[in-house]
């Protein structure tokens, strides 16, 4: 019985966390892009993951920069770097050499992975990819933060230890009492002690908690909030203030067209940020 409840509890948690991972993977897939490179004198488009240091990448307005690059050619190139610096203003890029160990925001002859080309174009040489980029360093620092257990898990651990201590004391007392005052066969005594343990363990409690947390995850999902770990729901319930950077986190600092109004009608425009693909609707029809 305990084994069955444990399996059910594990399945509930696995299903909910798998759904969250699938949603996060979908977001990662949307953010992934291709890069236009010049190799062997030819222009070709390759997945961002195939870039290596030394590749020559061509940038155009609306592109998401695929790697850290040193610029060798610019044409009124302006880049939005809020994802790295938090600054909402776009940065004019140049190709001139700079002296000294400059902070990230002052390296105007470079472009960085994850930033967005807001205007113009340019050509750059890849200097770092993946985890070696400035954005990758930030992700590594975030991943290195020690994970803290939620108050619910801490209380569950305390409850489990208390129940274990009580059961152990009862088993020892019952064993001594049975041997001293009653002539009970050892086999029957062991069965009685095992029955006591099974009866005392609240095997349904973990499953009930998982179900309650799963309901919270589903409620958050309906509000378009992805919960990666079930215990996070309990922590969110005690949260009163959220301190967050706006630009690059809540907003993208990318002005887009939502409607086109003419003298005769109104067109509704849908799309994903600066991506060249989109949809235009008139009266509900595409």
Automatic annotation (TrEMBL):
<dbReference type="InterPro" id="IPR023214">
    <property type="entry name" value="HAD_sf"/>
</dbReference>
<dbReference type="GO" id="GO:0019829">
    <property type="term" value="F:ATPase-coupled monoatomic cation transmembrane transporter activity"/>
</dbReference>
<keyword id="KW-0067">ATP-binding</keyword>
<dbReference type="InterPro" id="IPR023298">
    <property type="entry name" value="ATPase_P-typ_TM_dom_sf"/>
</dbReference>
<keyword id="KW-0547">Nucleotide-binding</keyword>
<dbReference type="GO" id="GO:0005524">
    <property type="term" value="F:ATP binding"/>
</dbReference>
<dbReference type="GO" id="GO:0046873">
    <property type="term" value="F:metal ion transmembrane transporter activity"/>
</dbReference>
<keyword id="KW-0378">Hydrolase</keyword>
<dbReference type="GO" id="GO:0005886">
    <property type="term" value="C:plasma membrane"/>
</dbReference>
<keyword id="KW-1278">Translocase</keyword>
<feature type="transmembrane region" description="Helical">
    <location>
        <begin position="193"/>
        <end position="217"/>
    </location>
</feature>
<dbReference type="GO" id="GO:0046872">
    <property type="term" value="F:metal ion binding"/>
</dbReference>
<dbReference type="Pfam" id="PF00122">
    <property type="entry name" value="E1-E2_ATPase"/>
</dbReference>
<dbReference type="InterPro" id="IPR018303">
    <property type="entry name" value="ATPase_P-typ_P_site"/>
</dbReference>
<protein>
    <submittedName>
        <fullName>Cation-transporting P-type ATPase</fullName>
        <ecNumber>3.6.3.-</ecNumber>
    </submittedName>
</protein>
<dbReference type="InterPro" id="IPR001757">
    <property type="entry name" value="P_typ_ATPase"/>
</dbReference>
<dbReference type="InterPro" id="IPR023299">
    <property type="entry name" value="ATPase_P-typ_cyto_dom_N"/>
</dbReference>
<keyword id="KW-1133">Transmembrane helix</keyword>
<dbReference type="GO" id="GO:0016887">
    <property type="term" value="F:ATP hydrolysis activity"/>
</dbReference>
<keyword id="KW-0472">Membrane</keyword>
<dbReference type="GO" id="GO:0015662">
    <property type="term" value="F:P-type ion transporter activity"/>
</dbReference>
<dbReference type="GO" id="GO:0098662">
    <property type="term" value="P:inorganic cation transmembrane transport"/>
</dbReference>
<dbReference type="InterPro" id="IPR059000">
    <property type="entry name" value="ATPase_P-type_domA"/>
</dbReference>
<dbReference type="InterPro" id="IPR008250">
    <property type="entry name" value="ATPase_P-typ_transduc_dom_A_sf"/>
</dbReference>
<keyword id="KW-1003">Cell membrane</keyword>
<keyword id="KW-0812">Transmembrane</keyword>
<feature type="transmembrane region" description="Helical">
    <location>
        <begin position="162"/>
        <end position="181"/>
    </location>
</feature>
<feature type="domain" description="P-type ATPase A">
    <location>
        <begin position="30"/>
        <end position="142"/>
    </location>
</feature>
<keyword id="KW-0479">Metal-binding</keyword>
């Amino acid at each position: 019985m305990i084994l069955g409840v444990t399996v059910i509890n594990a399945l509930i948690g696995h299903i909910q966390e798998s759904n969250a991972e699938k949603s996060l993977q979908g977001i990662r897939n949307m953010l992934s892009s291709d890069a236009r490179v010049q190799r062997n004198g030819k222009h070709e488009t390759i997945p961002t993951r195939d870039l290596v240091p030394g590749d020559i990448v061509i940038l155009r307005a609306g592109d998401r920069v695929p790697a850290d690059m040193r610029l060798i050619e610019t044409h009124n190139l302006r880049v939005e770097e809020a994802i790295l610096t938090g600054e909402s203003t776009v940065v004019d890029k140049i190709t001139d050499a700079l002296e000294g160990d400059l902070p990230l925001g002052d390296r105007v002859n470079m472009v960085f992975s994850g930033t967005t080309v807001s205007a113009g174009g340019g050509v750059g040489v890849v200097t770092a990819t993946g985890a070696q980029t400035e954005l990758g360093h930030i992700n590594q620092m975030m991943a290195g933060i020690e994970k803290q257990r939620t108050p619910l898990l801490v209380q569950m651990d305390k409850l489990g230890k208390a129940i274990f201590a009580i059961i152990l004391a009862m088993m020892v007392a019952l064993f001594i009492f049975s041997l001293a005052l009653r002539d009970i066969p050892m086999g029957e005594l062991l069965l009685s002690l095992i029955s006591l343990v099974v009866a005392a363990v609240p095997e349904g409690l973990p499953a009930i908690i998982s179900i309650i947390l799963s309901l919270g995850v589903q409620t958050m999902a309906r509000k378009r909030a992805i919960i990666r770990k079930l215990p996070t729901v309990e922590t969110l319930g005690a949260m009163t203030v959220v301190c967050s950077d706006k630009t690059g986190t809540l907003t993208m600092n990318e002005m887009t067209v939502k409607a086109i109004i003419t003298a005769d009608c109104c067109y509704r425009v849908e799309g994903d940020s600066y991506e060249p693909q989109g949809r235009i609707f008139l009266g509900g029809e595409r």
